[in-house]
Amino acid sequence: MANVSVYNIEGKEVGSIELNEAVFGVEINEHLVHMAVVQQLANKRQGTQSAKTRAEVRGGGRKPWKQKGTGHARQGSTRSPQWTGGGVVFAPKPRNYSFKMNKQEKLAAIQSALTSRVNASKLVVLDELNFPEVKTKQMKAVLDNLKVSKALVVLGEKNDNVVLSARNLPTVRTALTNTINVYDILKYDTLVLTKDAVAKIEEVYA
């Protein structure tokens, strides 16, 4: 099992914790990780883009000039794609870009992403994270103590003071254990977990 240090909010090491290899020590499947990221980005797309084809553009019913004798190339309509104001070739139309991954694939992708953070020494475990009031300075101080800047902070339970304290930091995102995803884990340089978040992740994703 991987053994990682546990820190307090002052950045001091206060112990260690053994991570479950079934979650944090699997063989990384790059294909499924890539697929999970593509799926999340595809599912976010609105798919509302639209342009008119030559059949939908108004006008152009009359042949602009006779077929022969003018010196021009033959033309059948002023709404052909090569004309200004003409239709678009293979015009984009509204469509749904989303696709599905089965549960086993999603699970393997999450486990691979978590393992990659451990292997890269980019996973930090906190004994607890709790603030008496909403203060962005407090959250910034904790991250500075941990020598972390761009981080995904995962909490075991909802904590409004922590969430609101981190909200104004542009390089920090907070999440609960049931809302973590592959894209966010890989997007942020460091994954910061509380001890109770580690326990819940091992319980859900093992």
Automatic annotation (TrEMBL):
InterPro entries the UniProt entry points to: Ribosomal_uL4, Ribosomal_uL4-like, Ribosomal_uL4_dom_sf
Domain of life from the UniProt record: Bacteria
Single Gene Ontology BP annotation: translation
Record bears the keyword Transmembrane: no
Subunit-level organization: Part of the 50S ribosomal subunit.
Similarity comment text for this entry: Belongs to the universal ribosomal protein uL4 family.
Protein's recorded name: Large ribosomal subunit protein uL4
Source species of the chain: Anaerosporobacter mobilis DSM 15930
